Amino acid sequence: MEWVVKLGGSLFPEDAINLCKELVGQNVIVICGGGEFANKIREYDQDTNFSDTTAHKTAILCMDIIGMLVADKIDDVVSVYSLEYAKKVLDEGKLPILLPSKLLEYLDPLEHSWKVTSDSISVYISWLLKTKILIVTNVDGIYTFEPSLDGAKLIKSISAKKLLTFSETSVDENLPELLLKYKLDCYVVNGKYPERAISIIEGKSSKYTFIGGN
Amino acid sequence: MEWVVKLGGSLFPEDAINLCKELVGQNVIVICGGGEFANKIREYDQDTNFSDTTAHKTAILCMDIIGMLVADKIDDVVSVYSLEYAKKVLDEGKLPILLPSKLLEYLDPLEHSWKVTSDSISVYISWLLKTKILIVTNVDGIYTFEPSLDGAKLIKSISAKKLLTFSETSVDENLPELLLKYKLDCYVVNGKYPERAISIIEGKSSKYTFIGGN
After folding, report:
1. What span, in angstroms and rounded, lies between the C-alpha atoms of B122 and B134?
2. Inter-chain contact B65–A61, Cβ cutoff 8 Å?
3. Residue contact A58–B47, C-beta within 8 A
4. Which residues of B fall within a CB distance of 8 Å from A50?
């Protein structure tokens, strides 16, 4: 396995399904964000104030839900609970989507808080598997400031250490810290253009932000 | 165990949490509906058209999510995956909330369709456990027609056979058929008034609809 591809929940359903179709045949494992399901837990949490652990665990179940729904729509995509089965699926020329709930129930390596989202979980899995990590989101990468604001510029390359000083980006707050801890690099790319993600995986030039954690 | 109490997802969070507080100490097991999480799957399904099995399984994960969130808010409520552990929790004077995903993955007794919701799942669990079944929803029971329409009257008692002829009610479409199959009776009550549910459980008079499946 060469890459963990983390698919942002905001790309679900159309863009997520389209990108996964393109990823079949690549040496990658996909992990999906919890999308609107996890957002709903966050909303309820603001009013009802659940424990960090329950919010964390239920948000991870939302990643399972989106993974199952994406896998359902494509013949050669299989949802899996284990890394061992993921490898078997790849060997058959199919694309595995990891449903992370069971794995994380046993390993539980990350802080239970809203700062730790599916981005951090994917970095952790990528560290476990010794793969590269590609975060696919709904913007072109990391910007100098909010991409919706005038004059915001896409950053081609940034160190995780520098990213720690940014207040809000398209990746989760905990991510730069985790990249430094595990000494990992990471690419952030826009999932609305599947060809960009494929180019990165195939080692060609593309539009993205590279975050250096080494 | 004397009762399965099915808590409608529409009661989540406040009314569901309040009722569960009152149910601690009763000889019951709670099962939660999937609420807004399951509704979201249904919405996506209308556009994206997932397979019946994936829609069914992901909707059941939504029941787990709501069960975990409700249990999180009350000290003496414990979420459980197995009926055996549920009995242990009851023996300790606490209230078990069943997270049905794992049990249903192994048993898989019901049709995979949107006609089969958490109501039917709860009836099946009640049949497994040989308990009575109480469906707690956000209206007073079953009405002669849509409760929002003028002149709709609450039905005190109806046979499941008669209910088969109704087009839309506050319980799922598959429920009357299942009550007939398993020869079970069922009470439908409004969860916004916890005292009504408690009265039924304690064998006292209350406002509800009784559905006879025997």
Report:
1. 9
2. yes
3. no
4. 69, 72-73
Task: Report pTM.
Answer: 0.96
pLDDT, tens digit (0-9, with 9 covering 90-100), for A138-166: 999 999 877 777 788 999 999 999 999 98
Per the structure, the complete domain to which residue B156 belongs is given by 3-212
Q: How many domains does chain B have?
A: 1
Residue among A174, A191, A170, A190 nearest A182 (CA): A174
Q: Are A127 and A120 in contact (CB under 8 A)?
A: no
As given in the structure block, the two tokens for residue A90 are 């790849």
**E strands in chain B:** 3-7, 28-32, 77-80, 95-98, 132-137, 157-159, 186-190, 209-212
**B contact test, residue of A20, A37, A64 with most B CBs within 10 A:** A37
Q: What is the CATH classification number for the domain harbouring A160?
A: 3.40.1160.10
> At residue B3, does pLDDT exceed 80?
yes
Query: Using a CB-CB distance cutoff of 8 angstroms, which residues of chain A are in contact with residue B97?
Result: none
Q: Which pLDDT does position A81 carry in this prediction? A: 97
Q: What is the pLDDT of residue B108?
A: 85
Give the Cα separation of B21 and A166 in Å (integer).
Answer: 43
pLDDT of residue B116: 86
pLDDT (tens digit per residue) in A188-213 = 999 999 999 999 999 999 999 999 99
pLDDT band at B213, cuts 50/70/90?
very high
How many angstroms away from the CA of B139 is the closest CA of chain A?
22
CB B4 within 8 A of CB B134: yes
